[in-house]
Amino acid sequence: LTFRGELIGSFVEVISSDNEDLVGLKGKVVDETYNMVELENGKRIVKDQVILRVANNKGNFILDGKLLKGRSEDRIKK
């Protein structure tokens, strides 16, 4: 299972992480790189360290960040 959507513009919340400081972090995604997402508040989240709740115009999802690793344009093409 992979996520083929665009994260930029989505609202995300970290619901689980090995780094407890990240749990509860939330905001709108303004940028995405191969390994990270950046929120509007300037916080950066390493994708493969978190499980995210994602809300966008397609619905609400719980996603393992490991499934999001990679460039969004490559993920959408698959």
TrEMBL record:
GO BP: tRNA 5'-leader removal
Name of the protein: Uncharacterized protein
Species annotation: marine sediment metagenome
InterPro entries: RNase_P/MRP_Rpp29_sf, RNP1, Rof/RNase_P-like, Rpp29/RNP1
Keywords: Cytoplasm, Endonuclease, Hydrolase, Nuclease, tRNA processing
GO cellular component, one term: ribonuclease P complex
Pfam families: RNase_P-MRP_p29 (PF01868)
Lineage: unclassified sequences, metagenomes, ecological metagenomes
GO molecular function, one term: endonuclease activity
